[in-house]
Amino acid sequence: MSPADLRDLASALPSVKAIQSDVARAFAEDIGPGDATADLLDPQATATAVLTCRENAVLCGTAWFDACFRTLDPDVRIEWLAHDGDRVAAGSAICRMAGKARALVTAERSALNFLQMLSATATVTARYVDAIAGTRTRVLDTRKTIPGLRMAQKYAVRCGGGTNHRIGLFDAMMLKENHIIAAGGIPAAVRAARTIHPNLPLIVEVETLDELAQAIAAAADRALLDNFTPAMLTDAVALAAGRIPLEVSGNVEIDTIRTIAETGVDFISSGALTKHVRAIDLSLRLDVAA
Questions:
Q1: How many Cα atoms are found within 13 Å in the side-chain-facing hemisphere of 195?
Q2: 266 is catalytic
Q3: 87 has catalytic annotation
Q4: Residue 279 and residue 120: Cα distance in Å, rounded?
Q5: pLDDT in tens, 195-240
Q6: Is 208 helix (H, G, I), strand (E, B) or coil?
Q7: Is residue 29 annotated as a catalytic residue, yes or no?
Q8: Which of 144, 194, 258, 275 is catalytic?
Q9: Active site residue 275
Q10: Tens digits of per-residue pLDDT, 168-187?
Q11: Active-site residue identified among 22, 35, 108, 205
Q12: 144 is catalytic
């Protein structure tokens, strides 16, 4: 699979196979050989349930939620009242369900774990995107994701209105300080990178305006401005003059992102979208049939 194909995958819902694999891992660690407490319930008992979101959020992860329950009860009925990418208000019912009681109680924790985490990623992303509304800048994610759930979190970033950065170490080259030092400077590092991987996007991290000028002269595909002050960013935009896209990284927070975006840079990347997430508060209430 080519790097372009992998980037396309990140912008869409992951495959059914990938989602089922995520669910299988979750069940292996949570259910293990079986749900001992669920043995209290009659195997034929049925139940209904309502899922409520207890805070304002951007919904994401419904496919993982569905897969959890359908793995244990293929006949479960799930009616979504909101969809991935929708903004839901605190106190709103977002899903109704009906199926086997054992399956509902056994799958509940894993299903909510996926939904609350992915909704958290989408919600944080939406806050960052909202903070720079009206500017030309786009918000990017990073590789600072939960191990094993990168594609899921990158999908959640898209649901929140953000844009995906590279997926991993294989689909783009990013020359950082140590790479550049080892190669003998920016021009030499860029030449070597183009020789080894001519078809991969090439991003060069710079720490000064002089290094930015070198990256532009070397025809890098993007410059990553590391820990530039707002004044330096304004100078960098003027220096680049549209010849190379500029990405800002480092010390990006919700209260600083607007100031950064107003300098006119193209991208702002932040690990906070995927690693500083707090689970969205969800509640699933069951009503077991008599």
A1: 7
A2: no
A3: no
A4: 5
A5: 999 999 999 999 999 999 999 999 999 999 998 999 999 999 999 9
A6: coil
A7: no
A8: 144
A9: no
A10: 999 999 999 999 999 999 99
A11: 205
A12: yes
